[in-house]
């Protein structure tokens, strides 16, 4: 298998992994807003979110700068997709913060920790889903 | 006025009997990058445009032009 084919395969798995991680972080956040939340589920949410955030960075390129596959997984169209998806994540969290502010003003009650969870999840999950979709579209 | 960078990569690539993967290998990028440049989804850097033109034996101006 050539480096091009290997990079293509890894890139597709990465995109599917991002979709799963994005969905998992939203599901854990939703669970934590309910009565069943505990320190364990909050820890799980934090772990998934931290893992997701790290994956949004070109870590493999930093760790293995001379690897041909790592370079292909981080070439200029991927960098552009990463930039676009991180922009979208920024706007996702900003819009969510505005919506929460409006909701709090109209009588909805949320604890500060829940507000932080919702905003962080919105930012990271929207960036991950956007990156995955851009990558899958590029691979068609 | 909207401007976009058009290209004839697909035609020239097929004329040279290269797949997207083969051209990607020559240029040192992923197949996705070739695909998105070909379809006008992604505007390549000057470096990549030059590499693509060299790989297909053309000048950058022959391969890319601005469409208004």
Shape descriptor of chain A reads: elongated
The biggest sheet of chain B amounts to: 2 strands, antiparallel
Oligomeric form of this entry? heterodimer
Mean pLDDT of chain B: 94
Low-confidence stretches of chain A: none
Radius of gyration of chain A: 17 Å
Say how many strands of chain A there are: 0
Number of strands of chain B: 2
- The helix content of chain A, as a percent range, equals over 70%
Share of residues in strands of chain A: under 5%
Highlighted features:
heterodimer, A: 140 residues, mainly alpha, 6 helices, 83% helix, 0% strand, elongated, B: 68 residues, two-stranded antiparallel ribbon, 5 helices, 2 strands, globular
Furnish the topology, listing elements before pairings.
The complex is a heterodimer of chains A (140) and B (68).
Chain A: H1 3-33, H2 39-55, H3 59-63, H4 68-72, H5 76-105, H6 112-139
Chain B: E1 4-7, H1 9-15, H2 20-27, H3 31-38, H4 46-55, H5 60-63, E2 64-67
Antiparallel strand pairs in B: 1-2
Helix pairs in contact in B: 2-3
Could you walk me through the main structural features you see in this protein, from its secondary elements to its overall organization?
The complex is a heterodimer of chains A (140) and B (68). Chain A has 140 residues and is an all-alpha fold. Chain A has six helices and no strands. Chain A has helices spanning 3-33, 39-55, 59-63, 68-72, 76-105, 112-139. The longest helix of chain A is centred in the N-terminal third of the chain and has 31 residues, at 3-33. With 68 residues, chain B is mainly alpha-helical. Chain B has helices at residues 9-15, 20-27, 31-38, 46-55, 60-63; strands spanning 4-7, 64-67. A two-stranded antiparallel ribbon of chain B has the order 1-2. In chain B, helix 2 (20-27) crosses helix 3. The longest helix of chain B has 10 residues, at 46-55. The model of chain B has no long low-confidence stretch (mean pLDDT 94). The chains are: A mainly alpha (140), B mainly alpha (68). The A-B interface holds A 2-5, 7-8, 11, 71-73, 75-78, 80, 135, 137-140 and B 21, 24-25, 28-33, 35-37, 41-42, 44-45, 48.
């Amino acid at each position: 298998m050539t480096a091009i084919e290997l990079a293509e395969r890894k890139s597709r798995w990465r995109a599917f992994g991002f979709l799963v991680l994005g969905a998992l972080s939203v599901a854990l956040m939703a669970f934590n807003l309910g009565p069943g939340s505990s320190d364990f589920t909050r820890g799980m949410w934090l772990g998934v979110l931290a893992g997701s955030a790290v994956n949004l960075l070109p870590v493999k390129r930093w760790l293995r700068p001379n690897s041909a596959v790592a370079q292909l997984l981080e070439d200029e169209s991927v960098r552009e997709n990463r930039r676009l998806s991180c922009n979208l994540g920024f706007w996702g969290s900003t819009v969510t913060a505005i919506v929460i502010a409006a909701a709090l003003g109209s009588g909805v009650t949320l604890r500060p920790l829940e507000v932080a969870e919702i905003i962080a999840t919105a930012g990271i999950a929207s960036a991950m889903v956007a990156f995955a979709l851009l990558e899958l579209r590029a691979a068609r | 006025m909207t401007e976009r960078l058009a290209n004839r990569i697909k035609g020239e690539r097929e004329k040279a009997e290269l797949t997207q993967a083969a051209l990607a290998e020559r240029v040192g990028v992923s197949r996705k990058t070739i695909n998105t440049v070909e379809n006008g989804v992604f505007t390549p850097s000057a470096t990549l445009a030059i590499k693509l033109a060299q790989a297909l034996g053309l000048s950058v101006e022959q391969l890319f032009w601005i469409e208004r």
